[in-house]
Design brief:
Elements lengths: L4 E5 L8 H16 L3 E4 L5 H12 L4 E6 L14 E5 L2 H11 L2 E4 L4 H15 L7 E4 L6 H12 L12 E3 L2 H15 L1
Parallel strand pairs: 1-2, 1-5, 2-3, 3-4, 5-6, 6-7
Helix pairs in contact: 1-2, 1-6
Bound molecules: adenosine monophosphate.
Length: 186
């Protein structure tokens, strides 16, 4: 599989730590410079808006998908290449999962966790084989990763659970993983 588009899941909060915004910006810039399109939730707020702005500022392509009821709340981003306003969260999530050739998950709250768990469980069920990369800024995902180990230790997921996702400490590592994922499956 060639990685042409990457779906990024991340926080809609403007109050996340500054360093997470810096990583989001670096990720967006790197996507644009590599000609990889961004697919995301379509909001202007939080890390979502930050990554989208960085892609646009560096001449990349951004497709956002936002449900109508969140258009005002998440301040839909009208300055991107394509904004798709859909009727339901399910429609949004379906497009987010279909349009990306890989998933990158930045720090976030309940929405991001829900999106992460969905793509992990769908991989577990064999619905897709796309790379899932967790950007572990400041060790953000460490607690969740130990919880994943616990549920594997207690026999509730297969011991190879960790093969469903990769953990990256920096945006540079994300790009390295994307390159090797693209090369492996070409
Ligand atoms: P959050 O991580 O909570 O800031 O949310 C990040 C994104 O996930 C935002 O675009 C939210 O609209 C979206 N979101 C919030 N709740 C859910 C949910 N239950 N399922 C899927 N996405 C959600």
């Amino acid at each position: 599989m060639n990685i042409r588009n990457v779906t990024v899941y991340c926080s809609s909060s403007n109050h996340a730590p500054r360093s997470y915004f810096e990583s989001a910006e670096e990720l967006g810039r790197g996507l644009a410079l590599r000609g990889i399109g961004l697919v995301f939730g379509g909001g202007q707020v939080g890390l979502m808006g930050c990554v989208a702005d960085a892609v646009m500022q560096h001449g990349g392509t951004v497709r956002g998908i936002i449900p109508r009821f969140l258009e005002a709340k998440e301040v839909a981003h009208y300055g991107i290449s394509e904004l798709h306003v859909v009727e339901t969260m399910h429609e949004r999530k379906m497009k987010l999962t279909e349009w990306g050739d890989a998933f990158v998950v930045l720090p976030g709250g309940f929405g991001t966790l829900d999106e992460l768990m969905e793509i992990v469980t769908w991989k577990h069920l064999g619905h897709h084989r796309k790379p899932i990369l967790l950007l572990n800024s400041n060790g953000f995902w460490d607690t969740l990763l130990s919880f994943f180990s616990r549920i594997a230790d207690e026999g509730m997921v297969r011991p190879d659970h960790a093969s469903y996702y990769s953990v990256c400490n920096t945006p540079e590592e994300v790009f390295g993983m994307l390159e090797s994922a693209g090369a492996k499956t070409c």
